[in-house]
Amino acid sequence: MIARPAVARRVGFYAGTFDPVTTGHLDVIERAARLVDRLVIGVAHNPGKNPLMPVDERMLCVEEALPSIRQRTGSEIVVVAFHSLLVEAVRANGATLIFRGLRVLSDFDYEIQMSGVNRRLDGGIETVFLMASERTQFISSRLVKEIASYKGDISEFVTPATQARLLARLAMRAG
């Protein structure tokens, strides 16, 4: 009997600020999870974006949305925080693929630059672009926060748990 070599697990990394995690993010997470054995969701500290929610709360929002995605994809999905260069976080989590979601042409301009820089920093890491589905391509965390701040209905853009946390944060900020 000939021994078969062990098949390497495919590990991907999907990074974002996720402030808040939207149905657009969740769509990319589910589609990316179908392509790998293990998907790491990296929640960036990114103070430059002045996030509304602290990183631990953003991680919780992502984690709360994952059970049904894990069930549908059969992929292992974990959530981690990171405060480093993306390629360092990818390496630290044993990933070789970076997943990026693209909504509009302007996303592509930025993402292609990032992909090139990441490739120069580590040639062993590949970037995979996933186009947003037509039902989510207009959604952004910034717009969701803006709609919520004016008391608009965000229920179709985020999970109920995320909506509750986001509205609570906005109420705290208001005073």
Automatic annotation (TrEMBL):
Its EC number is 2.7.7.3. InterPro entries: Cyt_trans-like, PPAT, Rossmann-like_a/b/a_fold. Keywords: ATP-binding, Coenzyme A biosynthesis, Cytoplasm, Magnesium, Nucleotide-binding, Nucleotidyltransferase, Transferase. ATP binds at T17, F18, H25, G101, L102, R103, E111, T136, Q137, F138, I139, S140, S141, R142. Substrate binds at T17, K49, L86, R100. Residues 13-146 form the Cytidyltransferase-like domain. Pathway: Cofactor biosynthesis; coenzyme A biosynthesis; CoA from (R)-pantothenate: step 4/5. It is found in: Cytoplasm. Its cofactor is Mg(2+). GO terms for molecular function: pantetheine-phosphate adenylyltransferase activity. Pfam families: CTP_transf_like. It catalyses: (R)-4'-phosphopantetheine + ATP + H(+) = 3'-dephospho-CoA + diphosphate. The record marks H25 as: Transition state stabilizer. Belongs to the bacterial CoaD family. Homohexamer. NCBIfam families: coaD_prev_kdtB (TIGR01510), cyt_tran_rel (TIGR00125). Reversibly transfers an adenylyl group from ATP to 4'-phosphopantetheine, yielding dephospho-CoA (dPCoA) and pyrophosphate. This is Phosphopantetheine adenylyltransferase.
